[in-house]
Amino acid sequence: MATPSITRIETFEFNVELRNICGSRHGLGLMYSPGENGIVRRSAMRVETDTGLSGEAAGQLIMATRQFEMIAHMVLGRNALHRNELYHDLYFELRQHDALAIGLLDICLWDLAGKLYESPVYELLGSKLRPLPAYASTYHGDRAGGLDSPKAYADFAVECKELGFTGFKIHGWLDGDIPGEIETIRATRDSVGDDMALMIDPACALPTFADALRVGQACDEANFFWIEDPFPDGGKSFHAHQLLRDKVRTPVLMSEYIRGLHLKTEAAISKSTDLLRVDAYQDGGITGALKLAHVAESLGIDVEIHSHGPAHRHLMTAIRNTNFYEMNLVHPDAETSGVNIYKNYKEGLDAIDPKGNVYAPTEPGLGAEIDWDYIRSHRVGGTVYEL
To answer: In angstroms, rounded to a whole number, what is the distance separating the alpha carbons of residues 335 and 21?
Structure first.
């Protein structure tokens, strides 16, 4: 078998159109806005080799492709199967940065390896296909007739439960509405009963420690599965999270906004979080995410994978110590995260089976065919790197 050497890498920056969703007037995230169409910018990558095989991945933040300019010269000419070696070399080179650039590249290389060996990625990771329980993860609250009240969240949770979802996560308001958060927690639990896992993710929007404590205590009363990233520090104050863990029973999920193996390991060892957030796009690809999953397993805790996507379905399939697949950014009146950038793969409220599960694609590699026509027609940037 010929060794696949990397000869060409092309990065793409493109716009994804959102319908009835746009950023708030104050720049505080995406939320429902009927009649308005917003845009988010995403990136994709294609890695080509001298054997004719290529690996493809899409969906990352554009910061990854901008950062990739710093390391492209270190990748060209390398063996495309030496993922772990590349991970360590690039992680060292990017040690003064957050190393976002590694994620998209590594996912491409796993896709390429799957095509080479004619196996889906989850088989290369040593696993068989299995159902992945999904939870519905909402857009943030709005004031425009969508998720604009505790009752609206509660009604949507019931709708998701009737569709088959076994978990539901509240992304509440980003304007520090603590009474609204607490009322939403209570109303949602009262509406769905005791047999649905409930979570809340303030996304760092609770202004004070006292606010986080009040919300955490409400989660205790409503038997929530976790409370996620409550503080405006972005998960960087381990001390504050340790204090919160001492005062609430609800498990704390923190580390979405910190990057990589070492810092997230420190968060777990310092007892700043009960559960670790893992994201292949942001934590060094599938290679880096697996390292984190193994660290967590050795410590006896679970990892929860951030957001959806084919790479994350393969990753979750191969991890024992994880609970839910995040069907991210769903809404009763708006599409999930904008248009579908794949031809044979979808996410959203209608992507689960009757028991609330999703599955990894079974075709070789990632098994999700990227809609390159869409990406090219909405392209706003990118670079070609060649030997």
So the answer is: 8
